User: Fold this.
Amino acid sequence: MIVPAGKIEEAYAKLKDIVKHTVIEKNQNLSDTYQANIYLKREDLQIVRSYKIRGAYNNIISRSKEDIKNGLVCASAGNHAQGFALACRLLHIQGHVFMPITTPKQKVNQVRMHGKEWVEIILDGDTFDDSYAKADTFCKQSKKAFIHPFDNLDTIAGQGTVAIEILSDLKVPIDYLFVPIGGGGLGSGVGSFFKEKSPKTKIIGVEPLGAPAMKKAIEKNQVVTLDTIDKFVDGAAVKRVGEITFEICKEILNDVILVPEGKVCTTILQLYNTDAIVVEPAGALVIAALDFYKDKIKGKNVVCIVSGSNNDIDRMQEIKERSLQYEGLKEYFIVNFPQRPGALRSFLDDVLGPNDDIVRFEYLKKTNKEFGAALVGIEYKNATDRNPLMSNMTKFGFNYIPLRDNPVLFDYLA
Assistant:
């Protein structure tokens, strides 16, 4: 099952005066790093700073006059909502937008800006799936039509128009296409067009490690609902992919890679520092995946779809923190200190290496106990400094627990 190229071309004709034909450009830094020709399809430069306007607009203009007159509803973690809101304002349609309470403020404000008086924002639930359930109930009660962010053929066809631009602009054969996977709409649309127009291209789907809904579905050959997810890569973190998108993706994807959230954070910082490209976590996902394919893509032509740039500046400290921890340059321990004079000095003089830096220390002395627990954050100059530190703690009698080895304690700290 794939979406016919003709349906995607029809969507492109409807959208060409609405959406921006975004650039595809060779990134020299990435090309040098991977000894390949790495091209970035810059959907982060789209009108609403993500590709989602394509699917939302195409879905809306495909609706009946009765649906449009009655008003429309969407659920979104942010980017689909912005496309939906802009479409509602341009077409003068009343819309209701359900978003998770945890949605970054920047995305909520962008939805309000694009939709103005034509949309009402309802913040409800902790995840996209929670908001989707609330929106579904609202639609049934109000008899309003739902504009699905991914599991709808018109949405998928709209997202697939990204592929038309890639193949029309890039005049070299494409060996690999890396596409982010959340609910699967972009992968389904772009992948369908490539399978028909560029069948030799290997299509690699990329999901965050903490939300592997498509990979699990393909492994089990059925759509599954994940019990929990890491919501950090909010543009690509869903508990359940679509029924339609699953059927398409299991046919067109050559592989699905899972990328740790910390690796995504490192990539965000690298793109900003080396190329002045500002992306959201989902936008960095596919570039972060290149490391896992570095041997296969050497000497090849590779396209990465940079899906969006709706990043909240307030998240940058968390992004830096996650990056340092993933790279092994920052770590937290619970350390049992002997409650005697000189214990702290011994830790500083005997345990810490010359380049180890204490970045967090929380301790409260308890006079009725022999040992007292302290929370200690260490920043290393090199990841190889970790083992000597732990050896020294054992050697000099400081019992410790690395928090990264204990998810419950680490989540409490974070």
